[in-house]
């Protein structure tokens, strides 16, 4: 009965978290349009999963408006490489248009080469209307299912035409569909969908080209529409390309508040449930082991401490008690440990708050770059807790120079990440990509670090150092005890590597979806699942560290400080190995620069994961050792 009740509670929690993204506080207020109101299409970056290097839309010689206006982007958007600008595509609400000519261009050698390179690398054009990204509907194999949506349309395609050599063709005719939800009382409409079907068409016309020239291949007067790409437009030097578009308006039952649901439609939730059940099995197994250890340690060892036992029993049951005089001896490189624990607390705070906001729906997908901006700002403000926790441990280890430890905490982790970031940014600059962070944004990042984060670390450190030092539950002997020879399975490297497998095993299925959303440019908005996985990761890191720490103390090895941190932290090594496996099996990256970018970013992610999981394990072990040694009477 109790198990059924527990299952019911878990199911209820999971359902609550799963549906948490059904409501959100949108990044923009809804906008009502009357019939005939002007709708301006904006263009965003060109993206490719083959190169991972974004480019500005106007880096290719597409049709331009009379004046190009940059939209103000937030910090997250700039770091993502978004470059949002106006475009010559202008619609009028609920007024269909057919075969509108945008412009005619004649390709020179450079333009033809640029187009061919982008087509070869499978670049996609991204556009935005009323804050909704442009998508291409793709039919699924199962005819009854709703279509899949791909972000943006390909610049063009490469293939054979009329059985001659392979050539490059450009998508120069766009057939847009704007879906709207109508309010019949006010006759106003709200946009709820923005789709496109791209075509490659070699347009024909008679006579000299001017603004009033009528096309033979696509004519609204003769009701001649573009329905296929049977006569495609080739990309070659000195070729003329005429860009055209249609737009139709479709009424939809989808309400404005639910318009993102089709973009975020999740078809693989079965896999996520499997991932969570799989992770819960790991947690239950570890929880059982921890419960056994706690019962044995606290109940049998402590309650029978003063009873007479045979020498063998005493030796077997009180192995961990023999090292009470050394267990709280400060470790080697204690300064570095304090720095990493402080940084881990900073990370944990950032992720916990971000995840909570995301589950409650504050980080809407309509607010592009919102997630990254929130994480950066939270990281900066969590510097307060980093300074506090590192100073508390530093004082416990009898440290006196609190300013030195503060400077190390404020600069070590961000410094390493910033150096990697600068190297990657220099490579992106070299490729002339819009993904390169401009000088102004770089200055803003440095200001956040030096102007806000560093002072907050100092404030936290000052407060932490002023507090009385954490008292050890038992006294430390002046002379260190000799550690007996350990069994092969208690070898530090072996036990550390074993310890990282279970935390990684708890998250690796969800990790696949996160990597896919980042590197294959798909939406990731299932924060309910992610929050459950994060809680499971937290419990797994804590429990595996406690279990291995207990075995270590039982074998009279009291050097647990660093091993506790590295045991759960080693899961970052498996994360990086999995990222390498993902690179070679799922991605089609061929450019060396793109490969360096991928591994550079995954190195930063793995380093952050190491700091986070290591700190969780360390705190769990610290709590466990203090608990068991404060519960026994030491003569």
Q: Could you explain how this protein is built, in words?
A:
It is a single chain. This protein has 635 residues and is an alpha+beta fold. Helix content is 48%, strand content 14%. The protein is built from 15 helices and 13 strands. Strand 9 and strand 10 form a beta hairpin. The two termini are 46 Å apart. Mean pLDDT is 84; it is low at 1-27 and 308-312.
| Beta-strand proportion | 5-15%
Sketch the major β-sheet.
Answer: 5 strands, antiparallel
Mass-distribution shape: elongated
Query: What is the N-to-C order of secondary-structure elements (H for helix, E for strand)?
Result: HEHEEHEEEEEEEEEEHHHHHHHHHHHH
Mean pLDDT across the residues is: 84
| Helix and strand composition category | alpha+beta
C-alpha end-to-end distance: 46 Å
SS element count, helices: 15
Q: Radius of gyration in whole Å, from Cα? A: 30 Å
């Amino acid at each position: 009965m109790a198990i059924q009740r527990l299952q019911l509670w878990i199911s209820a929690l999971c359902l609550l978290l799963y549906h948490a993204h059904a409501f959100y506080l949108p990044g923009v207020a809804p906008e009502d349009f009357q019939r005939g109101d002007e709708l301006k299409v904006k263009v965003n970056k060109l993206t490719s999963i083959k190169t991972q290097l974004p480019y500005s839309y106007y880096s290719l010689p597409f049709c331009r408006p009379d004046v190009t206006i940059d939209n103000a982007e937030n910090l997250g958007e700039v770091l993502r490489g978004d470059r949002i600008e106006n475009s010559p595509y202008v619609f009028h609400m609920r007024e269909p248009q057919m075969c509108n000519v945008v412009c005619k261009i004649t390709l020179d050698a450079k333009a033809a080469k640029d187009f061919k390179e982008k087509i070869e690398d499978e670049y996609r054009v991204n556009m935005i209307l009323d804050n909704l990204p442009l998508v291409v509907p793709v039919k699924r194999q199962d005819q009854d299912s709703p279509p899949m949506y791909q972000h943006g349309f390909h610049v063009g395609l490469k293939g054979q035409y009329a059985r001659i050599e392979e050539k490059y063709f450009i998508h120069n005719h766009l057939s847009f569909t704007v879906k709207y939800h109508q309010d019949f009382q006010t006759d106003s409409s709200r946009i709820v969908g923005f789709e496109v079907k791209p075509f490659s068409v070699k347009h024909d016309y008679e006579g000299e080209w001017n603004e009033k020239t009528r096309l033979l291949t696509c004519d609204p007067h003769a009701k001649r529409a573009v329905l296929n790409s049977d006569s495609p437009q080739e990309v070659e030097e000195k070729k003329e390309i005429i860009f055209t578009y249609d737009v139709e308006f479709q009424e939809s039952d989808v309400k404005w508040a639910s318009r993102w649901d089709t973009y975020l439609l999740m078809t693989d939730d079965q896999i996520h449930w499997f991932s969570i059940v799989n992770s819960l099995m790991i947690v239950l197994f570890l929880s059982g082991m921890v419960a056994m250890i706690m019962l044995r340690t606290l109940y049998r060892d402590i309650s029978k401490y003063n009873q007479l036992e045979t020498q063998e029993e005493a030796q077997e049951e009180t192995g961990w008690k023999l090292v009470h005089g050394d267990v709280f001896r400060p470790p080697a490189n204690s300064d570095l440990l304090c720095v990493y624990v402080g940084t881990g607390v900073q990370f944990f705070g950032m992720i916990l708050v971000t995840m909570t906001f995301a589950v409650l729906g504050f980080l809407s997908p309509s607010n592009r770059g919102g997630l990254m901006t929130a994480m950066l700002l939270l990281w900066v403000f969590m510097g307060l807790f980093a300074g506090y926790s590192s100073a508390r441990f530093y004082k416990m280890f009898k440290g006196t120079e609190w300013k030195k430890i503060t400077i190390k905490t404020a600069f070590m982790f961000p410094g390493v990440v910033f150096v990697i970031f600068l190297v990657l940014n220099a490579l992106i600059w070299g490729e002339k990509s819009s993904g390169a962070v401009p000088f102004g944004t770089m200055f803003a990042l440095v200001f956040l670090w030096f102007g806000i984060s560093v002072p907050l670390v100092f404030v936290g450190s000052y407060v932490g150092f002023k507090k009385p030092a954490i008292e050890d539950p038992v006294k430390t002997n002046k002379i260190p005890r000799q550690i007996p020879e350990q069994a092969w399975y208690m070898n530090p490297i072996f036990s550390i590597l074993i310890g990282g497998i279970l935390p990684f095993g708890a998250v690796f299925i969800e990790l696949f979806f996160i990597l896919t959303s980042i590197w294959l440019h798909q939406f990731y908005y299932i924060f309910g699942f992610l929050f459950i996985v994060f809680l499971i990761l937290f419990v797994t890191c804590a429990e595996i560290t406690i279990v291995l720490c207990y075995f270590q103390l039982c074998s009279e090895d009291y050097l647990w400080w660093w091993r506790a941190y590295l045991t759960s932290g080693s899961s970052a090594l498996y994360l990086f190995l999995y990222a390498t496996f993902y690179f070679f099996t799922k991605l089609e990256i061929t450019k060396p620069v793109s490969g360096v970018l991928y591994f550079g970013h995954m190195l930063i992610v793995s380093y952050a994961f190491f700091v986070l999981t290591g700190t969780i394990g360390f705190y769990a072990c610290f709590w466990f050792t203090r608990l068991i040694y404060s519960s026994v009477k030491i003569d």
